[in-house]
Design a protein that fits this description.
Layout lengths: L1 H33 L9 H13 L2 H33 L1 H16 L2 H12 L3 H25 L3 H9 L4 H38 L5 H10 L3 H29 L1 H4 L1
């Protein structure tokens, strides 16, 4: 069993390396075959050199930290309020029927469309970016919270009531563990969306962050810098996604035992 797990892990790591090498080879091939200038499509080597420059002058670290702060703040606040409201709506069909049209309508408006308004209303500081981040995370986590809590078997609720369980005990011992897989699924979606929310806010108006770095690169026709910003965002999203997967393994260990 242990050997099969190790072999699967090695196969997965090998497949990732092969995919990455294949991607870089195709990228380099396109640049060479079509003789593309750097401002249209820089080569992997040029992007690597721009990475090194951005790291050495501190611009990449400074802007990455700004985006990471916005992402984590928006993710935490969005998940907190979505889970809180989701729990209330899961318990009250009446409230859900009243608020559902407003929630659906709010999601029908693209975040990109309202981001400029939020920046105008709340300024180009960190708060507007965190707010955009929280809004884009809010709905998927809210829906998963409602679905997860309502999926708890009713016979188990009856059993807890027969044992004179308090509402807190009902939540802690039954509802939360039973709904956890669905809740974490919503968190997995929210983790990647939070990066998008932060960048949308930074692209609209900001003086720091990876979105700001991409704007600078675009304005200066420094396409290699744009690639640096985009690839750093991809890496950040992958790290967040991996953290949620790790959290799932820790919290849902009882499902595999």
């Amino acid at each position: 069993m242990e050997l099969s797990k190790k072999s699967n892990r090695k196969i997965k790591q090998l497949s990732v390396i092969i995919t990455l090498l294949l991607f870089l080879s195709i990228w380099e091939g396109l640049v060479l075959v079509f003789d593309l200038p750097a401002f249209i499509l820089p080569s992997p080597l040029q992007v690597g050199q721009r990475f090194a420059r951005a790291i050495s002058d501190g611009s990449l670290l400074e802007n990455s930290l700004a985006t990471i702060f916005e992402v984590f703040s928006g993710l935490v606040s969005g998940v907190f309020f979505a889970t809180l409201l989701g729990y209330i709506l899961a318990k009250s069909t009446f409230l859900e029927n009243i608020l559902q049209p407003f929630l659906v309508a709010s999601q029908a408006i693209p975040t990109v469309a309202i981001a400029p308004l939020l920046v105008i209303w709340f300024g180009s500081g960190i708060f507007s970016k965190v707010l955009i981040c929280a809004l884009i995370v809010f709905f998927p986590v809210l829906v998963n919270t409602i679905v997860g809590l309502r999926a708890v078997p009713e016979n188990l609720r009856d059993l807890m009531r027969s044992l004179k369980a308090t509402p807190w005990q009902m939540f802690r011992l039954l509802e939360l563990p039973a709904a956890m897989p669905v809740l974490l699924g919503g968190l997995r979606i929210g983790a990647t969306l939070s990066v998008i929310g932060a960048v949308v806010g930074e692209l609209v108006g900001s003086d720091s962050g990876l979105g700001f770095l991409i704007n600078v690169g675009r304005g200066q026709y420094d396409t290699a810098l744009v690639f640096v910003g985009v690839l750093t965002l991809v890496f950040l999203a992958l790290v967040l996604y991996s953290l949620v997967l790790w959290l799932e393994k820790k919290l849902l260990r009882w499902k595999t035992n």
